Amino acid sequence: MDRVALRGLRARGHHGVFPEEREEGQTFVVDLTLGLDTRPAAADDDLTKTVHYGIVAEEVVAVVAGEPVNLIETLAERIAQTCLKHEGVQEVEVCVHKPGAPITVPFDDVTVTIIRSRV
Questions:
Q1: DSSP 117
Q2: Catalytic site residue 98?
Q3: pTM for the whole structure
Q4: Catalytic residue among 21, 98, 106, 112, which?
Q5: DSSP assignment, residue 77?
Q6: In what order do the strands lie in the sheet with 111-117?
Q7: What is the DSSP string of 22-71?
């Protein structure tokens, strides 16, 4: 399976279990790796035979900016399901970063990574 990756998609969302996270919001960062067969697109040099990663990026940002959820695990699942709606995408790895998580000790990032497929 071939891979198309998008790294560092950013959007402001209001996800979290604490009221201040829901009210103030914060920036979330998403990394995606889409698994698909790119051979038909490459053979014909045809965008319609692959995934349009610009559209995927817009859809993922809309999910992050959309309806709030408590857990980034839930957010990652919603993003994965959005990606799998694209016909050629057979598998997706989603990593959601929450660098502004309400943690009381110094840290760089919090991430949840999931892999989902059509199977």
A1: E
A2: yes
A3: 0.96
A4: 98
A5: H
A6: 2-13, 26-36, 91-97, 111-117
A7: HHH-EEEEEEEEEEE--HHHHHHT-GGGS--HHHHHHHHHHHHHSS--S-
How far apart CA 6 and CA 49 sit, in angstroms, is 18
Amino acid letter, residue 23 = E
pLDDT by residue for the chain (119 residues), tens digit each? 999 999 999 999 999 999 999 999 999 999 999 999 999 999 999 999 999 999 999 999 999 999 999 999 999 999 999 999 999 999 999 999 999 999 999 999 999 999 999 87
User: Which residues, 6+ apart, have CB-to-CB distance to 18 below 8 Å?
Assistant: 102
Classify each residue of 43-75 as buried b or exposed e, where b means 16 or more C-beta atoms within 10 Å of its C-beta.
eeeeeebbbeeeebeeebbebbeeeebeebeeb
DSSP secondary structure letter of residue 110? -
